[in-house]
Amino acid sequence: MNQLKLILLLFSVSLIQSCSTEYLPIIEDSQNETVIIAEMEVGKDVSLSISSTYGVDEAALLPTDEDGEVRISNEQNQQLNKELRWVSNLNSWIQTSFKFFEGQEIVLNTDFTNLGLGKTTASCIVPPKGVITSKVDAKKQSVLGIDQYNFALEFSELPENNYYHLKPYILQNGEQLFLNVNSTEEGTFSLTHMAGILIDYTTTEGVNALDFTVFSKDLSNPSISEIHLDLKTVPKAYYDYHKSLTVQKETQQGPFDAPVPTSTNIEGGQGIFIAYQTSYDSIEVQ
Questions:
Q1: Among 3, 149, 207, 223, which residue's Cβ finds the most Cβ atoms within 10 Å?
Q2: What are phi and psi of 273, to 5 degrees?
Q3: pTM of the prediction?
Q4: 93 Cβ contact list (under 8 Å, min separation 6)
Q5: 11-47 pLDDT, tens per residue?
């Protein structure tokens, strides 16, 4: 069996966050555009943030329902133009009755012409839920005084234009200590603006088994009995967007250098509009 080999380093939860909105994209100066961050999980309420691009000497606009409207549709569920409401204490637009399922298309439309932001539209297809189909318990060994854990996982195959985002972590004192993944293998991309690693099977020639080596550093309790695994199935727009954010974060240069463009699937604006599914698993440490 061909396998991908990865190295994971332990990071404190205070140093790396799993929420995509913790690291905001840098966007080239232009006329103000709507910026939408919408990553919607199947089975949960729709919640998204909306702001605007901004220049050096101005703050981003934060539209409310007094400034325009946001509507979402799912024709397969006969949910057309469902209006989202602005919740000020959450700084988010919310829709609690909107439902979406695997294979369905979701369409978003916004209109903030009163603020000079114009209209935007975006659409996405809800991906299938990927699962871990096989796993080998982690084995602990010490290398140069550092504990490391070796284990293997195998995943279900995904349809074209679907990807994985794997986030291994350890629970310590009730907190998630995420694992930072370093790899030079094709088809994997380590994220630095958020936890985990992106996996693109279109460039791994169908390989779906991965070998992991986990290095644990600076643990208050070095005895690890279980490694938790969050596995998101995400569309190409998610992969491209978060890859561009990490590249942008890692290559921030001087004021006279050209910025790294941020990938977007928002027509008439910036940001991301996607749906995803998550499966949860864990692996024991021998």
A1: 149
A2: -135, 105
A3: 0.84
A4: 47, 48, 49, 50, 70, 84, 85, 86, 87
A5: 333 333 434 444 455 555 456 899 999 999 999 999 9
